[in-house]
Each structure stands twice: as C-alpha cells, then as structure tokens.
Design brief:
Pfam families: OTCace, OTCace_N. Pathway: Pyrimidine metabolism; UMP biosynthesis via de novo pathway; (S)-dihydroorotate from bicarbonate: step 2/3. Helix content is 38%, strand content 15%. It is built from eleven helices and nine strands. The strands form two sheets. It has a five-stranded parallel sheet. Strand 1, helix 2 and strand 2 form a beta-alpha-beta unit. The protein binds aspartic acid (ASP) and phosphoric acid mono(formamide)ester. The site of aspartic acid has 7 residues, from helix 6. Phosphoric acid mono(formamide)ester binds next to helix 2.
Length: 312
C-alpha cells in the first residue's frame, strides 16, 4: 500500500502535485478489489464517526461516502439539513460547532458557497472533506474520474480530454482541470461562449473551443457535464433542443473522437440535453464505473485522513 503524504483535510485538488495524487489512486485500487470480494477492512475506522453534512442535493456522493465509511467500520451519520435546526436559523458555523462537540472525527461537507468547507476546516477538530462547494471544487469526483481513466488507459499523462458543456458553473470541471493538467494531460473546454467564456484559458494549460465537433475531434476522453441550472441566470442557452443540436454528444459526434474514446459524465445526467441516451448506455460509456470508483476513492480518502493522525 502506498505511503500517503500527511494532509489533514481534503478541500480541493488545486495545489496538489502528481506525488500527492497518485497514492490516493493506489490506495483506492486496493479498495476496488476488496469491495468486489466483499472483504473490506472493517477495523480501519472502527470507533470513528463520519458525519455527512449536505446542504445541497446528492445521490452518488452522499451514498458513496456512507458506504465507504461503513465498509471501513465507522459509524456514519447522515445529517438531513432539510429537517435540521438550520431551518430554525442556525448558522453553518454553529451547526459545525455542535457536531464538533459530539466528537465527530470526519466531516464530509457539500455546500452551495465556494469556500464553505475550508471555513469549517478552520473551526472544527474533525478532518473535513469537500464533497462539492459551489462552483469551486469537487475533489473526490476528480480523483474517481482519474481512477476510472487510469484503469482503462493505464496512464493519466499525454491524453487529450474534452470537457464539454456547462464548464463555467462546474466544480467538477475545475477539479478535473487541476488534476489532469498536474498529471500531464491536455484539456479542451468545449461549449458555447455563454457557458465556456474564453477567459477560462487563464486557468492555464487549457484550450477553449466553441465548436463541439472540433472540440471532440481526436479526443481520448469526452467528459460531458450537466447544465447547472441552479447556478445559472436564465437566457444563457436558447432552448434545450437547440443546445442538444449544437452541443449534445450523439453517435455522430462521438465518432469524431478517437476510436474507443471513453465517454464520461459525473452524473446526474440529463439525457437528451447534453448526452444522447444511446451514447450514455453504449460500450464506450464508463459512467456506471465512475460510480463504483467513487466508493473506492472515498474509502481511500477517509482512510488516509484518519491515518494522518498517526503520521508525524
Ligand atoms: N454531481 C456533480 C456536482 O454536484 C455534478 C452535477 O451536479 O452536475 O457537482
Ligand atoms: N457526481 C455527483 O457529485 O453526484 P451527486 O450530486 O449525485 O452526488
């Protein structure tokens, strides 16, 4: 098992090097095998408490953090914000202080405000994991995407990755840009100027392309993104039908990418808006595998953070 560098929280991929990233992927590889053989090490987090604190909707991330914690033997609490005292006006920081007083060990936070997990990390004793903060980052998504790619293509360098759709509002895109450029791959950001403004080239090492055919041509990976309507002012796209016509991934467009290019999507998908149903379900799609890798990555993250206490 790889040695992981000591890091008390996982708040974002930005600033992480190849050396910081690879050990998570190696550790998660073990957890894929152990999960498949139903022999996860339940002693790893025995006696620890993981709290899932989600202020935004989630299916995959929250469930997989719960499964990950349970497979490692932790007690896992899912706080349902909709029925919590947040509705009585309690602030984010007071909510966190309350959980802290109950001696939670690992706090997994999703919040609509960029930077909310980082703020909590300064206030609580628990290890904080960012499960998605506003338009900022979704680090475990980028790690699970990288694990999926590595298992299929055996490398993370020298690849051409087209990240397509509503890049501007996407924390998934940001975390993937940081991770894949750190690993030495080429990123194309593809979408209409309203969703992929040219200034995004300032993120460094990325190319902005407004024509979808050109964007996917020759790509090793086509990563589609949902339109983040919850973060969008109206009028950024004419209509969903028009959007699909110009920017949706259908069979014809997929044929422009490399033969056997991987089709990815973080989920949830809007079929017929950014991706055709038959493409989402095709042999080139690794979307369900991304979900499986999500559990393994989250096991690796929880395990690493808990272990870091014992690393000098
Ligand atoms: N589930 C991902 C996120 O929370 C992507 C999405 O919602 O479109 O960022
Ligand atoms: N990919 C992702 O984060 O999915 P959820 O929003 O369902 O957690």
């Amino acid at each position: 098992m790889a040695e992981l560098s000591s890091r008390l929280h996982l708040l974002g991929i930005e600033g992480m090097s190849r050396k910081d990233i690879l050990p998570y992927l190696d550790l998660a590889e073990n957890y894929v095998l152990l999960s498949r053989s139903r022999s996860s090490p339940r002693e790893a987090l025995r006696g620890r408490t993981v709290v899932n604190l989600f202020f935004e909707d989630s299916t995959r991330t929250r469930t997989s953090f719960e499964l990950a914690g349970k497979r490692l033997g932790a007690d896992v609490i899912n706080m349902t914000v909709a029925t919590s005292s947040v509705n009585k006006g309690e602030t984010l920081l007071d909510t966190a202080a309350t959980l802290n007083a109950m001696r939670c060990d690992l706090l997994v936070v999703r919040h609509g405000q960029s930077g909310a997990p980082a703020l909590l990390a300064q206030k609580v004793d628990a290890h904080v994991v960012n499960a998605g903060d506003g338009m900022h980052e979704h680090p475990t998504q980028a790690l699970l995407d990288a694990l999926t790619i590595k298992r299929h293509l055996n490398r993370l360098n020298g690849l051409t990755v087209a990240i397509c759709g509503d890049v501007g509002h996407s924390r998934v895109a940001r975390s993937n840009i940081h991770l894949l450029t750190a690993m030495g791959s080429q990123i194309r950001l593809v979408g209409p100027p309203t969703l992929v403004p040219s200034v995004m080239e300032e993120l460094g090492n990325v190319m902005v392309i407004h024509d979808m055919d050109e964007g996917v041509r020759g790509a090793d990976i086509v990563m589609m993104l949902r339109m983040q309507k919850e973060r969008m002012e109206s009028g950024l796209v004419p209509s969903m039908r028009e959007y699909f016509r110009f920017y949706g991934l259908d069979r014809r467009r997929l044929r422009l990418a490399k033969e056997n290019a991987l089709v990815m999507h973080p989920g949830p998908m809007n079929r017929g808006v950014e991706i055709a149903s038959d493409v989402a379900d095709s042999a080139q799609s690794v979307i369900q595998e991304q979900v499986e890798m999500g559990v393994a990555i989250r096991m690796a993250v929880l395990d690493h953070l808990a272990r870091s206490e014992h690393t000098p």
